[in-house]
Amino acid sequence: MANNFKSNVAMILDFDYGKSIKEANTIELYNAVSKAARKNLGKDWSLTAPGKKVCYLSAEFLIGRVIYSNLVNMGLFHQFSELMSENNLDIRMFEDIEDAALGNGGLGRLAACFLDSGATLGITLNGYGIRYKYGLFKQYFEDGFQKEAPDDWQRFGDPWSVRREEERVRIDYKNQSVYAVPYDIPVIGYGGKKVNTLRLWQAEPLESFNFELFNEQKYDKANRNKNEAEAITSVLYPNDDTEEGKKLRLKQEYFFSSATLQDLLAKYKRKYGNDFSHFSSEYAIQLNDTHPVVAIPELIRLLKEQERISTSRAIRIAKETFAYTNHTVMAEALEKWNEGLFKAVIPQVYKYVVQIQRALTRELLTLGKGTGDQQRIYNIIDNNLIHMARLAIYASHSTNGVARLHTEILKHDALKEWYEIYPERFNNKTNGITQRRWLNLANMELAGFITDKIGSGWITDLERLKELEKFADDKEIIKEFGDIKRIKKRQLAKYIEKQEGVRVNPDFIFDIQVKRLHEYKRQLLNAFSILDIYFGMKEGRITEFNPTAFIFGAKAAPGYYRAKGIIKFINEIGRLVNNDPEVRDKLQVVFVQNYNVSYAEKLAPAADVSEQISTAGTEASGTGNMKFMLNGAVTLGTYDGANVEIVEQAGEENNYIFGARVEELERIKDTYDAKGIYDTDPRVKRVLDALVDGTVDDGGTGMFAELYNSLLYGASWHKPDHYYILLDFIPYCNAKLKVNKEYSDAFSFRRKCFLNTANAGKFSSDRTIKDYMKEVWHV
């Protein structure tokens, strides 16, 4: 089949567009190459695999642009390169094809890595989610402010998806019914031996067009069903500031959860009939965060109402089948639904939430936890709220954290009451990334270098990178490693100039912080430190400084006012610094627009310094830190999330750790005095005052004053400086200056970077999936 790849591309172009390869435009060629590659899958994709099947339910799958990774995994990349070369075409011409807008942050990227690892390891691990039409949004800046536009990623086609009309299912809400139509994307393991499926559900109306209403000139009403149905799968995380927004989010979560379960039950019954004693042996369902937790009462409902299984037995089947991954320690991020809203949207499911609550109450009584306040901390339904994390912990057999520190915080703080009664259910699964995407594809130069030194075994066994350590004192090899970093920095600089219209000097240190914009991730701390360096240069306090480009990438949720203020603040700092002739040959600030997977594939290989500076105890794990480590950057970070394990693996001497740790923050939380730090430290005062003294301009919005007040005086929902930016400010600045100074010793600094790559083996998602297979899914 592989031998026909080139001829298939030509045939598809001729059939679909009536063009030759030389005549085709980028979109046409992309569609033809994708379809030709998919044709090569043959029967491998349609084969029904024996054994237990893992179903990964997630609101996000951040798969990015899959064409290059699929060609590599299928062994077709060489033929693709030949095809492009023969026709004088650039193999990188598809870099302008838009990413599939199916996620936002680490949650979705983790899910995508897991699917790649599952297929490469040869297990049946299928993903289930939503086929968003517009994704989160496409970000652009206007006078430094974030603006949002629809991310219409499907407008030129979606050649990797196959619509399965015959497998559509019906989803019923209280006042609406829709179809869920599946679109399947192949997930191809490295070597092409195993092909799994990412099944994404799209909402469609039962009746798309009312001809009678149209004839009566009631045009809006004629299309109402279509519009209301399509709204369910239009946008990832619709703004939930209003009651209607909250209802839409709940509809989304129920939509893909119910559709998936109906699909699994239909497949199960074709094999086993009405004997449900094998269900949990046939399927393991992993819930990625709380968004799909509504699947638990929905499965119980389906088993009870459609299969006539008793409620108690249905709950037992659910417990045996479901496992839950927790991604946060912050109480406000543990999803809770208003009881009235839940009943108003899916009353048929609410009945079974009540049944689960009753079963929990009975169990608590037997455990001696069934009275008064003792019971309340466990209640799934409490104070008119439905607590989805509590539901997940009780009605599943496994709850895991995603880094060792995170899991310890869950067990001994955030979820300690649950750990006391169900200790056997708690376990850690430190996150990982797929080296096939984030090194073999994203950094082909470094991948080639590594393969030349230790062979290609690392592609499927990342622990083999440890063999690089023997070269750590070889100056020629470290120089070769550093030369690759320079190549990647030049490539990134060229890409940024193309995308942003901004020139970045590739000889600068590249200090990069790219991740979702949230206060706990502390982009604001980074911004303040840049201002401190700027003021230090202007005042003569800082005289020796290796030129540095500080590069940011992040999206703020549309309704997250403060996060948008931080974006504006960083862009204003960039305007200040980049236009000052006294410092612009030493400092540059760049905020890239519309940060996504494809941008990350350029940024991670080019970074010298990886900024991972969340408040200790707030970042569950992080996976960006692993991507930067794998590609040879040092971590400048706090003792938080997976940073802890990165430092263990690569050595604290090869990274830069600063700031208060979890134990210290716990000790001082009731007495912490942010205003006292501001009043006694002139450097802290100077950078904070910049928010309100005219140094930078927020366009009259009041955004900067709001940031200033939140740090010094708090707000109705939090204490002053609740993420300890002022506490960690001076230690952070000191660490940043230390990185900058030590960069001067090229061999020593590159050696640190090299040792990070050599010790990244633990952070493969292959290892994470193997841990799930052994300890949770039992496959």
Quick gist of this model?
The protein has 779 residues and is of the alpha/beta class.
Describe this structure in words.
The structure is a single chain. This protein is α/β, with parallel strands linked by helices. It folds into three domains: 1-40 and 75-98, no CATH class; 41-64 and 99-430 and 771-777, Rossmann fold, CATH 3.40.50.2000; 488-763, Rossmann fold, CATH 3.40.50. Helices cover 47% and strands 13% of the residues. The longest helix has 30 residues, at 243-272. It is globular, with a radius of gyration of 27 Å.
What value does the average pLDDT take?
Answer: 96
General form: globular
| Secondary structure tally: strands | 21
Structural class: alpha/beta
What's the name of the CATH homologous superfamily of the largest domain?
Glycogen Phosphorylase B
First-residue to last-residue Cα separation: 31 Å
* Number of helical segments with 4 or more residues: 33
Q: Share of helix among residues?
A: 40-55%
The domain count comes to 3
CATH level 1 class label of the largest domain: Alpha Beta
Q: C-alpha Rg, in Å? A: 27 Å
CATH topology description of the largest domain: Rossmann fold
